[in-house]
Every structure is written in C-alpha cells, then in structure tokens.
Design a protein that fits this description.
Shape: globular
Distance between the termini: 39 Å
Number of helices: 9
Number of strands: 14
Bound molecules: zinc ion, fe (iii) ion
Helix content: 25-40%
Strand content: 15-25%
Strand order of the largest sheet: 1-2-3-4-5-6
Radius of gyration: 18 Å
Order of helices and strands: EEEHEHHEEEEEEEEHEHHEHHH
Largest sheet: 6 strands, mixed
Amino acid sequence: MSLEIITVPCLSDNYAFIARDQETGVTALVDVPEAAPILAELDARGWGLDLILLTHHHDDHIQGVPEVIAKTNAKVVGAKADAHRLPKLDMALNEGDSINIGASEGVVLDVSGHTIGHIAFHFAKAKTIFTADSLMALGCGRLFEGSFAQMWESLSKMAVLDPDTLVCSGHEYTAANGRFAMSVEPENTDLQTRVKEIASANAKDVPTVPSLLSLELATNPFLRPHSPEIRVNLNMQDASDADVFAEIRRRKDNF
Ligand code: ZN
Ligand code: FE
C-alpha cells in the first residue's frame, strides 16, 4: 500500500484521516473537525503536514483549519465551487482535477448531495477514497442541499470503483445505520454479519471506519436499490434504481 492511513477520532463522532505517502513521506490531512487530536497524532509520529484536503463546508469538517495551519506549513485544498464558504484555499479544484500526495496520484470526484460542492478524493493506485459525508459506512449523508438524483449520481460514481477500495468516511454513525439497514433488508446475511461486527467494535470502542467498498456494495442499502428483497419490502418492484434509492433515503430520514 502506497498510502498509510491513520484514522483520527475527533469531536463526538467525527473522523479525520492522516494519509502519508510511503515513497516520499509527503503527508496530508483530510478534514479538520478539531485541531488537538490531529496535532497530537502528528507530534507522536514526528510527522509534518504538507496538505489539508477539505471535502465540504460544514463546520465539523473545517473548524480546526486555522489552528492546524498556524502550527504547520500545510497548504489547503478544496472545491472551487465552494471556495466562498471554505477556509482560504491555496488550491481550488474541480471534478477530474488531479490531487497528489507525494507520489500517490489522486483525482477529485464531485459527490454533491449532502451539500452542493461536496467532493471526494480518490487515489486509485492506493485503492483509497475519502468520502466524508457522501458515501458513509452502511449509509450516506443526509441531503441538506442536493437532490435525491444528485446523491444517487454521486453514489453511482463510487459504486463502480475497484471493490478493494478503502472508503474513508466522516462519522461513526455505523451502528444506527445498521439498525436502519436491517429494517429494509433483514434477510441479507452479509448485513447480519456486519451488524454483529459493528456491535462488538462499538463495545471495544474500535472505529468501524474506514470500510471496504466491497462490504458497502454487499450491505449498504443506499448502494443496493437493485436488491430484490429491498424492492419487495418497499413495494417498488418495477421502479428505477434512482427512485428506489430516493425512497430508501426518505425512510432513513424518518427512521
Ligand atoms: Zn457534513
Ligand atoms: Fe459531517
């Protein structure tokens, strides 16, 4: 693996990620919910920080930026479309633009839905994607700004990546997501197994994030509108995947 990923729990249920390119030692941080635990992690490893990658404008993903850039020389990277509501960007990116961490080559995906202008950072060779509040462990972000169709388009872009891709998402919401997933696809044996694993991880205070895309494809209801069981339970056997996705998202909002 060319990127070493450190998961940093922040605030009550957020995750930031430190990603270090093993060939060059160039180190990036994805999202900054708060500075202290991130600076402590960098200090403990004796690592500097070169880049801060921001996924979207919500406070719980950016509020630690001023304190982290005061203590490091990190350059801030984010979506051009969101430059007006992000901390000052040194590099403003559009979908398809490349973003490298040393020798690890990445590309920006527009994954709007949770917010308009939410981006993900995909490192194909390192088989890692930083998705924050778009595709999440057993879930997807609530639609604060985008439409159902936009979120479905965003999830569809990620669903076709290499199934061995590590999905680094922004929150520890997995147990609650599992209760919802079981309400729409209770006979899914992969899901049943995952829900048990989540309970034991929670009991030991071990993060359930990141997760493998293959596991999300097998268990995450928001990637499974094609599932015959879900379609029967929603009484939507003949609907489009996009419409079934929208109904799953609506039900989650009211769960
Ligand atoms: Zn958010
Ligand atoms: Fe968030």
